[in-house]
Structure formats: C-alpha cells, structure tokens
Amino acid sequence: MARRTPIVYLVALLLIGLMLGPVIYIIVGGFRTNSQITVSPAGLPDPWVTENYTEILASDAFWRQVGNSTIAAVVTTVAVVTLGVMASYVLARYRFRGRGAMYALFAAGLMFPATVAITPLYILIKNLGLVNTLPGVILPQIAFGLPTTIIILVPFLRAIPKEIEEAAMIDRCSRLGFFWRMVLPLSVPGLITTGILAFIGSWNSYLLPLFILNDQDTFTLPLGVQAFASQYSVDTARVLAFTSLSMIPALVFFSLFERRIVGGLTGAVKG
Amino acid sequence: MTVTRLRSGGGVQAPPPLRPRRRGIGWGQRLEIAALSGPAILVFVSFVIFPVLMAAYYGFYKWKGYGVPTNFVGLDNYKTILQDTAFHEALWHNAEILVLSLVLQGPVAIALALLLNRRMRGQSVIRVLIFVPYVISEVITGTAWALILQTNGAGNDILESIGLGGLTADWLADPKLAIWSLMFILTWKYVGFAVILFLAGMQNIPDELSEAAAVDGASFWQIQRHITLPLLGPTIRIWAFLSIIGSLQLFDLVYIIWGQYVASTAGTSTMATYMVVEGRNAANYGYGNAVAVVLFIISMVIALIYQRFVLRRDTEGALTGGS
C-alpha cells in the first residue's frame, strides 16, 4: 500500500486544484484590469490592482446587501431553531393522539421544496403586504427550514434518558421546567447543527428573494451579485471582485464551523 | 442506531413508535403541547402547506396573477401540458440530469471517498477543501462558471495555452455541449457533499472486516468490491434519493447561468425554470401553477416508488429497531 501513496497525493492535489481553481480564479481575477482579462483570460494580474476591491468596499450597496443577508439569516436561524426545538420536544416526549399525523406533516415538508409553491407563496406575501421586505423572505424561510430541523432534532431529544426526566419530576420540576433546564442545555449540539444548516440555507437562498425582493434596497447578497453581474457585464474585473467579496462571509463561517457542518450532515446518515 | 437516523433523509416516513400508555392526558399537558408546537405548525401550514394547496387550486384557472381568479378552465392547463413541447423538452432535460447525476457523480464520489478513506498527511484539510464548492452559493457558482466557460473565457484560454486549442468550444450556448457543461458544474458543486456522506458511511464499517479479508489474501480492490461497497449500500441509497429529488427540482444554477430565454435554446431548461418563465415572467400564473403541480406529482411518485422499493430494506430495521 505504501508505494501507492505518491499517486494518491497526486490525485488529491489535482482534485484540490479542480475544486479550488474557480474560487482562486474569482479572487485573483478581481485584482486584474479588464484589459488584462481581455488579453489573457486565464493569466495572472500584472500589475496587481486593488481598485476593484476598494471601490466595492467603499460602496453603500455592498454593505447594505451584507446587512440584509445577515439580518435575514440570523432571524431565520433563531426562529427555525426556536420553533423547531419546541415542536420537536412535543413530538419526542409527549404522547397524544395526532402525534403521528403531526410528525408526518412536517416530514412530508421535505418533499415540498419552495419551487413548487413559489408563485402562490409570492401572492400570499403580496396579500400580506410583505413584498420588498425582509420579513417577506424570512417567514417562508422559517417554514421551509422546519422539516429538516425537526427531523434532525426529534431523535436527538428522544435520546435523552427517561431517567433524567423522572429524576427531574421527583425533584418537582414541571415538564416545562424540565424542557428549559435540562432539554435545552443537553441538546445544544443538535441546535448548533440545525442552526448552521438554516444559516447557510438562508445566506445562499436565491429563488425566494428573487420573487419577493424587487427593490435594490432590500436585496440580499445573492441578488446583489446577480444584479451587479448584469449591470457591469462588460466590467468583468469588477464583477469578479464583487463576487469574491460576497463569498468571504460564507467561507469564514464555514471555516469556523466546518466540523459542525460536516458532522451535522454525516450525523443525519451515520447516527 | 444507524438505520434509525437513516430515515431522516428519506422524506415521508412512519412516525416514531409510540410507547403504550394507558392514562389519558390532562388539560395542563394539552396546553403545553399547543403552546410548544402551535407556532411551528402555524408558520408551517401558512407558508408551506397552504401555498402548495393554492398551487393546485390556481392550476385550474386561466389567470394573470392579479385579482381573484375567475376564469375556471378545469383540466385545460393539464391538457395543454400534455401537448406543450417546451415542457416536454424541460422534462427530458430533468430526466437526463437525473440519470447523469447518478451515473457520473456516484462513481466519482465513491472513488474519491475510497481514496480519502485512509491514513494520509493532510487528509482533514483535503476533506474541508473539497467541501468548499458546496458552501458557496448557487449565484456565485453560476456567475463564476459562466465567466470561465464563455467563449473568450479562462476555460478556452487554458486549453489554448496547454496546446489543446482544437478543443475550445462554446461551452454554454452549443446545445450539444451545454447539458454536459451543466453536469460538470453540478458535479463540481455537489460531489463534495456526496464524498462527505460516503466517508461517514465508510467509517461505520468495522476495520476488522477488511483486516480479516486482507489476512485471507484479498487484494485492495477485492476488499472494496466485496466489503466496502455492499456495506456502503444504505448511504448510497440515501444519497441517490437526495440526488434524484434535487435533479427533479433543479432551478437555481440553470436560471442563473442561462437565464430565462437562453435555457431553452441551449437545451438546459428544467421543469422548474420553465414554470418560473411561464408563471412569473409571462404572467401566465394559472398555467405556471399547473406545471408546478405536475412537477410535484412527478417528484412525489418517484419518491414514493423509491421509498417503497429501494429504501424499504433500510427503513424496515428502523421501524422495528426503535430508538
């Protein structure tokens, strides 16, 4: 097996190059001028110019979009996790008629992607007067985030030993007190995993904002990138700079929580 | 435990097993149940279930999207869908994407997972790096690849510079090539996800099995073929399910790279992009919603068949095993 190793490293290196190549191309491309790109589309910057980046960093539009995306993602995440853990607690630890139906309702939600419901959803949001507002994006995002959250959290909450609950009851802790004092602290890893999935989902979401947000002031980053790319379609270097700047928050977030993200995804399969 | 969680990826499933209980529940508990699950149910029903039902309702009308729909046409929209060649093309593209995703991404991801599932320097770094494309948004992925693959983009430039100038092409607009370009981009973006799933599955396979086989003289490939792959079955079946549903619902990347007009001429339109083009951009809401209903029914039927015949052996253990 040992003599195989150089080949393995070579393949791994090629793979990394292929996966990261486009990302590096975007970042480095932002340091070039348009004439450099026209002359040699795949070349290196010569000289390196920073105007593309500094101008975007100085623009209000970019920061407004970062702000909108952050608000939408944070509110969505907090709400999905809060509502999700409450409902999961009921599904995991209460016994009542209709519980199976309630679980099936949320589980079926996995097969109702936003695509199918998008036009009626738009009309509903319009009737609620929420078009061009962040709540108009956040509310449906919460709803569509709930199935995954609940499916991941229910087994998690069920796994909390019955003995702990009984001990808490003997100590005159109410069910709600048990939820607050024992269940929430014990389920923090599950809450973080589902929270990260909700955050990334919201940060990257495209279809829903595309329908709900038409006003540039309310754009989130994905819409901003697309608007910028079509507005400056001849100014490739600036588009590359804008795109790479909009990539940074997700990459930073990912590098911070990489273990949790990968663990969360595999946890859903691995058990 | 393994199979228990496996259910989570699988769409509609049986509820968790009920423990037998004699006593009824009191009003206090009912209040708690309502207070804790009420908000989630309210939001979910309002913004998921209700819109899906409304899609079915609007699908019976010829409707421009404003006012109350009055022009009831019954099944006319669905009869139109049966004769709509643009929709049939989109459906065909979905089918191509579905099959190609399975036969391209599956083997590639399994091969990569086998490669990475061994002790090697920098392994954790490699795992993180191949996962980066999955975290980057569809818009960034689309924008970047559109720039790289355009005729005067970096892709063709690199081919020229390494002496393969004869291979340069119009990757995005040529109808013969566009679907392959799309598959390449989809693979780039989603293969990391598959690799991570497969690696997790492989870590569940006890080392003793392959060690024993090695002692018995089995080669590396024999071990993979007869031990790793069969035991990876449940993970592969779950991945395939997610991939199938994703292929049927594909919207973002196609719409971002090809836009509403070009997708059909380049041969990359999907049911979802066609639905948006018809329903929203052509203000043909009734028809767009009928397309959505067809898309939903196709996904549902395929998902149910898949669960019935493929995932059944995985979920059986889950139902009897409990948790």
The CATH architecture of the largest domain in chain A is Orthogonal Bundle
In CATH, the topology of chain B is named MetI-like fold
Distance between the termini of chain B: 7 Å
- SSE sequence of chain B, one letter per element: HHHHHHHHHHHHHHH
For CATH, the homologous superfamily of the largest domain in chain A is named as MetI-like
Strand count, sense and barrel status of the largest sheet of chain B are: none
Count of distinct strands of chain A: 0
Q: Which structural class should the secondary elements of chain A be placed in? A: mainly alpha
| Percent strand of chain B | under 5%
User: What's the CATH architecture of chain B?
Assistant: Orthogonal Bundle
H-E order of chain A: HHHHHHHHHHHHH
Distance between the termini of chain A: 31 Å
How many helices of chain A? The count is 13
Secondary-structure-based class of chain B equals mainly alpha
Low-confidence stretches of chain B: 1-12, 317-323
Number of helices of chain B: 15
| Count of the separate structural domains of chain A | 2
Rg over CA atoms of chain B: 24 Å
CATH superfamily of chain B: MetI-like
**Proportion of helical residues of chain B:** over 70%
Tell me what you see in this structure.
The complex is a heterodimer of chains A (271) and B (323). Chain A has 271 residues and is an all-alpha fold. Chain A has 2 domains: 20-58 and 233-270, no CATH class; 70-222, MetI-like fold (Orthogonal Bundle), CATH 1.10.3720. Chain A is built from 13 helices and no strands. Chain A starts with a helix and ends with a helix. In chain A, 49% of the residues are buried. Chain B is mostly helical and 323 residues long. Chain B has one domain (78-313): MetI-like fold (Orthogonal Bundle), CATH 1.10.3720.10. Chain B is built from 15 helices and no strands. Chain B has helices at residues 2-6, 27-58, 76-83, 85-116, 123-135, 138-149, 154-161, 175-203, 207-215, 220-231, 233-249, 252-266, 271-281, 285-309, 312-321. In chain B, helix 13 (271-281) packs antiparallel against helix 14. Chain B is globular and about 75 Å long. The interface between A and B is large, with 106 and 107 residues. Chain A: The chain crosses the membrane at residues 7-28, 71-91, 103-125, 137-157, 178-200, 239-257. Chain A: Pfam families: BPD_transp_1. Chain A: This is Raffinose/stachyose/melibiose transport system permease protein. Chain A: It is a multi-pass membrane protein. Chain A: One of its GO terms (cellular component) is plasma membrane.
